[in-house]
Write a structure and sequence with these properties.
single chain, 443 residues, 17 strands, two-stranded antiparallel sheet, nine-stranded mixed β-sheet
Length: 443
């Protein structure tokens, strides 16, 4: 009897193992409750977008129940050179880097090495005494408003939670009444790949500039996650690049993700195009600055946790599947499921998007499908990047979607909303209509 019990337990473990540590495997739409004919609409649509000159090229990945049911490229990686887009193309993912940095912070939280209510000054002393913009008196003429603005000490410390939820009051400097000071300090905008200094040095200069709002008062999108990247470096004793590589990318087998591109792989990097205005044709972005960027030949000194990574659709999908699985992939656990639950819950009330969505520890959160105004599910978490990349994870539908393109500026592109409609219209049965294997605990 004991021998039989051991055999049964072993068989249960083998059967249950892939469910909790479930990676991404190739599957058919029918296996995942999706219509192959409806998924094919994505191919037709993306091909039309590229032929019409609305996008140069795209890679789209859709996974459900841990099965990749759609992974297709359309258009060109480089129009001028006539290079077709391929599914292994590298993309600048900009603010999709923020989710990775948020995971890194929460890994350190789980290890007891920092806490969400810790002041950032505990790890970056230059933030011990920050200041905030004081608006000019009511009635000040718009042209004189910036000159009339002043600054005052912050009324409370900036915490890890403030940074993770973008409620620290910190912008990218653009539009701040002291924007000229931000520019003079070379602390402006999200692009860091060309900087020839460690990001911690840049962030120390930021700490001396007046912030846009008092910590905790408003949702202000800006340098928050870059500051968190510096915290990861200070707490771990590693560069952000090394922490990501050793603690996240290597364990998750994200072999094509990093801050800079190996020159030997430069031909895999997609060319950036842009649309200046709605309806205008795409044109190749300029070489200097954030256009094509310094992702191949840059100084390789400044690791932007907010916007610095390059990745592929399949690599990033593995990262998202880990989150959908509750922090584990292929038996490798980065986070506990309760931590993922915390990260994907609304922490800001109605401060973000007028309450149409919530915002968690690094993600936009859907709390009400009707208020969101788009297809989806309650509990969905998502974000995108400046080069018009996009991802979302729908735990109700057990769905992971990654969309890659390189379009900056995007000029009113409706690619994201169109893709969302096409993906959800391809779901033809609910996840609970299919048998779910028992779960096995992973360490």
């Amino acid at each position: 009897m004991l021998r039989n019990l051991m055999v049964v337990c072993a068989l249960w473990a083998v059967a249950a193992g892939p469910a909790l540590g479930q990676g991404l495997t190739a599957g058919t739409p029918d296996q995942a409750g999706m219509s192959p004919e409806r998924l094919a609409r994505i191919t037709t649509t993306m091909k039309a977008f590229t032929e019409q000159g609305r996008l140069a090229g795209t890679v789209t990945l859709v996974a459900r129940d841990g099965k990749v049911v759609y992974h297709e490229a359309a258009g060109k990686r480089d129009i001028e050179k006539g290079v077709p887009m391929t599914t292994d193309t590298l993309f600048r993912i900009a603010s999709m880097s923020k989710a990775v940095t948020s995971v890194a912070i929460m890994m350190l939280v789980e290890e007891g090495r920092l806490h969400l209510e810790d002041p950032v000054s505990r790890y970056i002393p230059s933030f011990a005494r920050t200041t905030v913009v004081v608006p000019p008196p009511a009635g000040t003429a718009p042209g004189a408003a910036a000159a009339a603005a002043g600054s005052a000490p912050a009324v409370r410390p900036i915490t890890m939670r403030h940074l993770l939820t973008h409620t620290a009051g910190i912008s990218y400097g653009n539009g701040n009444p002291f924007e000229a000071d931000y520019r003079a300090a070379n602390v402006i905008g999200w692009y860091f790949a060309d900087k020839s200094e460690p990001i911690g040095t840049t962030i120390d200069r930021l700490a001396r500039l007046p912030m846009d709002a008092q910590p905790g008062d408003r949702f202000v999108y800006g340098f928050n996650t870059d500051i968190l990247g510096v915290v990861v470096e200070r707490v771990s004793g590693q560069s952000l690049a090394d922490f990501f590589r050793t603690r996240i990318f290597t364990p998750l087998k994200m072999t094509s993700t990093g801050f800079y591109v190996d020159p030997a792989q430069a031909d895999r990097l997609a060319t950036v195009y842009g649309i200046a205005s709605v309806g205008a044709p795409i044109t190749k972005a300029p070489e200097p600055g954030m256009g094509q960027g310094h992702y191949v030949n840059g100084p390789r000194l400044s690791y932007s946790g907010g916007a610095g990574l390059v990745s592929t659709a399949s690599d990033y999908a593995r990262f998202l599947q880990m989150l959908l699985n509750g922090g584990v992939l292929d038996g490798v656990r980065l986070l506990g499921p309760k931590t993922v639950e915390l990260m994907t819950s609304n922490h800001v009330g109605a401060l973000y998007s007028g309450g149409a969505f919530g915002f968690g520890l690094g993600f936009e959160i859907t709390e009400h499908v009707g208020r969101s105004g788009r297809p989806g599910s309650v509990g969905e978490f998502s974000w995108g990047g400046a080069y018009h990349t996009k991802f979302w994870v729908d735990p109700v539908e057990k769905l992971v979607v990654v969309f890659m393109t390189q379009l900056l500026p995007a000029g009113g592109s409706d690619a994201h909303s169109t893709l969302r409609q096409l993906v959800y219209s391809a779901i033809v049965d609910a996840p609970d209509a299919r048998p779910t294997p028992a779960l096995k605990k992973a360490s």
